[in-house]
Amino acid sequence: MSHEWRYCSVPGRLAHRPSLISSQMIPTPPRTLTIAGSDSGGGAGIQADLKTFSALGCFGMSAITAITAQNTLGVTGVHAIPADMVAAQIDAVASDLGVDAAKTGMLGTAAIVEAVAAAADRHGIRKLVVDPVMISTSGATLSDDATTQAMVRLLFPRALLVTPNLPEASYLLGRTIARRADMEQAAADLIAMGCPAVLLKGGHLEDDSAAGIAGGLDDLLMLKNGTVRVFTHPRVDTRNLHGTGCTLAAAIASQLARGDALEDAAGKALDYVAQAIAAGAGLRLGSGNGPLNHAFAPRALG
Predict the structure, then answer these.
(1) Torsion angle (degrees, nearest 10) of CA 159, 86, 28, 156
(2) Into how many domains does the chain fold?
(3) How confident is the model at residue 141 (pLDDT cuts 50, 70, 90)?
(4) What residues make up the domain containing 263?
(5) Is residue 21 assigned to a domain?
(6) At what angle do helices 45-55 and 262-280 cross, to 10 degrees?
(7) CB neighbours of 108 closer than 8 A, spacing ≥ 6?
(8) What integer is the mean pLDDT of 7-21?
């Protein structure tokens, strides 16, 4: 039987009584896991993911793949966590707390990618969002060729969704993807590489006016069956965009954990990110690219 504590009249003492409510009556909240690097500046990586999970009413857990020294100006140091320790973190939370959905971010080494893929199989993690983090906003390289190849080979086929930005898609495909007209073919080519679905993020588009809305920003979702859906949001004039990709992948995982179908999860997550960007446009944190406002309208856990 569960118990509760209450204050009694004697200072410094607590009275204890059995609760009348059984713990079996309390529902399990959506459980989300982030497998990514830590951002000491708090704007991206594990920190952004956990803020997003909480804001969307999910219980967040983490498996840290790397420790980074970074702030709004850039990354100054990266220390990878041993692959067996990454696996141990996933095993610890999945075996006890359970995982309804997960997302990956910076993985760092091919060995970590292999450990994550094996853990996903071991614990039956099917709602997996893979954000193929390769280059930071400041231009720092966060993934080498061996890690990227392992990600394509092992994680893309296991993912429910892969969420590259245009520079990442360009790197993966070996050609420049910078215009709206190139996005659909790029998404199709990524699916041919093994992705079951791709959300190609348009934050780096050169021809925003092609969206049909002045200053508009397009994100293109393509499913393996060829279904294409384009989500358009207004572009916000702000420097505070650090952690946008991490936040989006975490938001999609949150909506999947809540039971949404993929298209609905992507749409709601993109709306959340657009609002977090707008709400954080006036924040003044650091001298460079600041964070979003993840907590603009937090949702209760459950």
Answers:
(1) 0
(2) 1
(3) low
(4) 29-280
(5) no
(6) 110
(7) 37, 65, 66, 78, 80, 81, 142, 143, 147
(8) 46
| Residue 274 to residue 299: CA distance in whole angstroms | 17
pLDDT at 22 over 90: no
What's 242's domain CATH number?
3.40.1190.20
Structural domain contains residue 24: no
- The answer as to whether 165 is a domain residue is yes
Question: If residue 104 lies in a helix (H) or strand (E), which one and from where to where?
Answer: strand 101-104
For 4-134, where are the alpha helices, taking DSSP H only?
45-55, 83-96, 110-122
pLDDT tens-digit profile of 215-265?
A: 578 999 999 999 999 999 998 999 999 999 999 999 999 999 999 999 999
For residue 142, is it within any domain?
yes
Buried b (16+ CB within 10 A) or exposed e, 95-115: eeeebbbbbbbbbbbbbbbbb
Residue type, 71: N
State in Å, rounded, how far the first CA of the chain is from the last one: 21
